[in-house]
What we know:
Helix content: 25-40%
Strand order of the largest sheet: 1-2-3-5-4-6-7-8-9
Amino acid sequence: xxxxFFSLLxxxxxxxxxxxxxxxGRGKTLRIADAHLYYEEGGKRAQEAVVFIHGxxxxxxMWDPQWRALGKHYRTVRYDVRGFGRxxxxxxxxxxAADLLALLDHLGIQRAHLVGLSMGANIALNFxxxxxxxxxxxxAASPNVDGFSDYTPALFxxxxxxxxxxxxxxxxxxxxxxxxxxxxxxxxxxxxxAHRSLVEQMVRNYSGDQFANPTAxxxxxxxxxxxxLGELNSPILVIVGEKDEESIQRIARLIAQKAPNAQQFxxxxxxxxxxxxxxxxxNQALRQFLSEKK
Length: 294
């Protein structure tokens, strides 16, 4: 059960498209066998693609502060991971890397920059290990990684309280409030009020499925990504908030130490959701890293 818990902490056939012009920024639906992925596409089609991957219990909207800023120079894609947002609910194990591969194939994107936060960073790193030929660079913000186990007792206890509360009372406003108070969800006081509201909206709209049904956890394959960090040859930028929980600091250091082409950047005064707490500085670091020549 413990390994399932940590997988949840990370966190994320025939294809058909429903929608209009894919570059108009409106949401589209990609069908994959018995599931569907909600995604949005914007920016400049002729430029390199940047794919944004959200964190656990959140959705593609968490990238609002980056969407327009990066769209000025790149082809941008953001999507709801299976089990979250407007994508299919997950009722059992699933492979988020396979879903991402299907999305890239559908959009005709041969290689992309991957930008993920927390669970999204785990998905990006796992994808880069398994499909290196499809990746340009990886930005792993506030990363989690499957196979890592050195979490602090405090974080383990905080997650355990939420799991226990949901098991007893369901995904109610009370248990949602408990989750919003976990260190990984609490925004620093300097965060814009609109972004605080956005985080709350995303959590309220989340189904609670992964808390209620641990079998809906993403499956990243074996060996776990934590044991394959040395295989990551793509340039990697690890962004970690100065005030993020110690468990995440440990993971960030591990990636920076093990991945051959990794570098770490600390955002002063930021916590776990650093793209929402320090959007200007996050965007600046993101643009600088992506524009650097290999």
